[in-house]
Amino acid sequence: MGSITGTMGCRSSVADRRSEKVIRAAILIQNWYRLTMARLEMRRRYSLSIFQSIEYADEQDQLQLSDFFTFMLDHCTPPDSVSHAFTSPSVSQVVDEAFDVQEFENKICVPDSYYGPRLSFPLTVEHANALLHAFRNEQLLHARYVLQLLYETKKVLKEMPNITHLSTSYSKEITVCGDLHGNLDDLLLIFYKNGLPSEQNCYVFNGDFVDRGKNSMEIIIILFAFLLIYPNYLHLNRGNHEDYILNLRYGFTKEVSKKYKDHGNQILFLLRDVFSWLPLATIIDSKVLILHGGISDTTDLDFLNALERSKDQVKERIPATRSTKHMATRNVAGKARRLSSSGSTEPSGSNLPPEPTPKEWKQILDILWSDPRSQNGCTPNKARGGGCYFGPDVTAELFRRYNLKLLIRSHEFKPEGYEISHNGKVITIFSASNYYEEGSNRGAYIKLNPELIPRFVQYQVSKYTLRHSLQDRVGTIESTALKFLREKICAHRSELTSAFAQYDPEGTGRISVNDWAAAMESVLQLNLPWRILRSQLALLSPDGKVDCMSCFGDLEIAQPVKEVQPALAETLCRYRKDLEIIFNIIDKDQSGLISLEEFSQTWKLFTSHLGITYSESLDKLVLSMDYNKDGYIDFNEFLEAFHVVHRLQKKVDS
Amino acid sequence: MATARGCLPWRRRGTARRQECSALGSVARNCILQAKDDAVAEIEKKIIEAFEVFDQGGDKTVSIRDIGSIVRSLGCFPTEAEIHELLANVEKEEPTGYIHLEKFLSVITKVLLDRSYQPIPEDVLLHAFEALDENKCGYITKEELVKYMTGEGEPFTEEEMEDMLSTALDPETNTLHYRDYILKLIVE
């Protein structure tokens, strides 16, 4: 597509009527075909834009709410004391000291019936091979070995500096991989094409190993195993997703709880610690800087190298960049934090890990979250809500200061798996193929030789042996993208309706395409080509205007809620993800039900921290939420209760 | 590929599209007398949107390789030669391989307002296939198709040819039944 190699066939001098007719027919068909392909390419591109815009908007929500979630996680003490030990940081310190590899062996027994791989420490290449083999066959590693592996990994990581220095003189080429996001097939394919890590085959994995994909756990295990075997030849940089708060939303927490029912909390707690010890950056031959997100105009490598990286970065305040809705939540959490740090109502002592200073926090947030842009300057990263956008001048200045030649970063989806920007100075490498949907993109990795000239290797994992036609592939990507977008639209139904009304003073229900596009963008702020998307989202009336209500049309609501009222559907669409996270935090035993006890614990916690006095008895409140009167609150009941409160709150506000 | 909302029969969709086109056309004509600026602004917005979909770095430039896709996705039917000509015009000053929005906008707005690259009606497409189908049997063999598409007119690249074959051919007979295939091209 889009190649410009064709020229007009000029053979009219020898052509008889038949061949002239054939040429004209051929041109016409070629023309039509190219138009069809252009439209297809347009659809592919806007689908990817939809995915990316929604992804970033979502990340922004998550960052804004991270304070609140952290607060809940830290203080939500479950009623049973067994899991208590592994969710409260202060107690875990003790656990940490006391437990070692031997301890896990004594405490957790592996039954004879377990047929997965068995590990012993120190790990060997045979163990790593056994793990690869097991994961290819969809086996799980037993929780005991996982805990032992994590424990050993933490010990090794703790000894590493924040910034790792490598040299190409020891190994001829160094391979750099970007985001994997739980796509095990991509990691296996990289190893298949490029060989396993070894003394001769050095790897740098540049963060975002987990979340989104189904096999984050397996990826972590394989990477950590090779790290233990070859600590000098496999290097890991932290990504923004190596963060327990982000894991709550993007699936890794869920994956661990599902795969490890008994020891999930223990594993999660240890992971939180391991993640905080991941190095922040790698520098090759003092010339190539590798880190996950990017840089800012204040990025100070010496400072980054010196700070204490294991401090709990995520718990920090995030600058509010968008809506006041989040401000409210932030203030609530912020207030609670102040109370908790004063120690007055601290349920679990004051042994919380030290919080980073604002400067430390900004330095780390910038390198984990930033994206390059081609405009000069350094501006806040509006789409993501964290980090910044940095221009070629910012890159040039950093290179000058530290005498660098190349910046390799990941963090951003790229259809081809990599992208070169800032005049060749910045490379984005993204290793998760089919990231948004089957066929949405290729993955890639970089081979860096001693001359430090990067070579790119692209690949795409395909589950199907038959190559799907471009039409089918684009169709799949497009329909998924549009489904996400329609959900987003329904989640903002009332705001959109009033935005439409502003352009429609007479209340005809119809507005011009131009006004419709403006209204959509003003509410959703996704920076999407609304005029082009119009035909997929809303109907035109005979006078050429958009029928406003038609864009709320055919959303299939997957919730098992009976008789969904429109307002409820909107609330659910918008807050479902947040509420699910909160529900899961309260539901410590992951039973899918919140017991009365779990609920009252949480309630007491909230009321005492927020200084609310609630006159009616708690039992009455719980009973009112428990519609089917089975003594438990399930997720639907929880959503319904939230909706009622939300509606009342809105009334109070207005 | 029809979405839930788009499952109108192709003919009706085709007609609807033509109506939209002609609506645009009449607007463009009327505006010369009245709200010319409005119409130009509207067309410009359409162009900017299409342009931005292909502007990956968000820096108001696109690769010249994507110009064909952008122009065509705006509903124009330029030939490759015409795209060449267009590129020669916009790239004259700085042959960087990238084209800036401003430059592109001024050229393409004129193209759309003048309706330079007229849409080709669908029935003409059917005639074109019939012209290649010498024996009037309703299909074209793979060999014939490759011969015509890569040897005549504005020849397909290898990639284009491969892509077309992968969707156009009936895998069992290795032939292209063009009446069915036209539906595919048009629904897209």
Explain this structure to me?
Chain A: One of its GO terms (molecular function) is manganese ion binding. Chain A: Its EC number is 3.1.3.16. The complex is a heterodimer of chains A (654) and B (188). Chain A is globular. In chain A, helix 16 (470-491) crosses helix 20. In chain A, a hairpin with a 7-residue loop joins strand 8 (378-380) and strand 9 (388-390). Chain A is α/β, with parallel strands linked by helices and 654 residues long. With 188 residues, chain B is mainly alpha-helical. Chain B folds into 2 domains: 28-114, Recoverin, domain 1, CATH 1.10.238.10; 122-186, Recoverin, domain 1 (Orthogonal Bundle), CATH 1.10.238.10. Chain B has 9 helices and 4 strands, in the order H-H-E-H-H-E-H-H-E-H-H-E-H. In chain B, helix 1 packs across helix 2 (36-54) and helix 2 (36-54) packs across helix 5 (101-114). The longest helix of chain B is centred in the N-terminal third of the chain and has 24 residues, at 10-33. At the A-B interface, helix 1, helix 16 and helix 19 of A face helix 2, helix 3, helix 4, helix 6 and helix 8 of B.
- Tell me the CATH topology of the largest domain in chain B: Recoverin, domain 1
Major sheet of chain B: size, sense and barrel closure? 2 strands, antiparallel
Overall structural class of chain B, as computed from helix and strand content, comes to mainly alpha
Provide the CATH architecture of the largest domain in chain B.
Orthogonal Bundle
Biggest interface between protein chains, with counts per chain?
A-B, 59 and 62 residues
Overall mean pLDDT of chain A:
79
CATH superfamily of the largest domain in chain B: EF-hand
How much helical structure, as a percent, in the residues of chain A?
Answer: 40-55%
